[in-house]
Amino acid sequence: MSSRQAPESIGRTLTPRRNKLAVAALTAALLAAPGIAQAAPQDVPAPQQRAAAATITWSLQRASNPTQDQLTAYDLITKAMNAAVTRYNNVSDLGKSITVRYDPGVPTADGSSSGTIRFGNRNYMNERTALHEIAHTIGVGTSSRWSSLTTGGTWQGAQATALVRQFDGSSAKLSAGGGHFWPYGLNYDNEFSNTAADRHVRIVEAMVRDGL
Ligand SMILES: [Zn+2]
């Protein structure tokens, strides 16, 4: 299991999809009402003008004159991060600007809420680990609200709980501890599948809607 850095405070860049749709629906209703359209406030965007979904972006900090060891690591990290970020952007509307480093002093890999991910060990330079660490940058185990949202070792939020019950049945719950959650936490390589990875991303997004 990967370790994590101490939480740092940072403003979140995401815009929950639900809110954007609510604004669009409200605007559509206003525009549809007779005689109201011209009186609509200037700062309410028309539906077709609403902001695009937030996206996750990432960049790799490279040494200016990299060694062969660094070049090999950069290739593995790039494949892992591209796969994970593509999945996030296909499955969710979450947004984050992530900076990635190769640091051989890191035993496995870690992610902080400041948006930094460090990969150390070759065995962890894969999509599973990249997804897991992205979740840490978004707030899993690192948000100041994490402990209150995981009181008693169970996720307390309604949205993510409803989602895991949709996946696993009406008695399912999300357990949490040590800054991690399960099922679908992608805490170990043997948890990975395309289905589990998509569900992981959707649960993280629901956790954000729950106030992560
Ligand atoms: Zn972790």
UniProtKB/TrEMBL annotation:
Keyword terms, alphabetized: Signal
Domain of life: Bacteria
Keyword Signal listed: yes
Signal sequence, renumbered to the chain: 1-39
Protein name: Uncharacterized protein
Organism for this UniProt entry: Streptomyces graminofaciens
Taxonomic lineage: Bacteria, Bacillati, Actinomycetota, Actinomycetes, Kitasatosporales
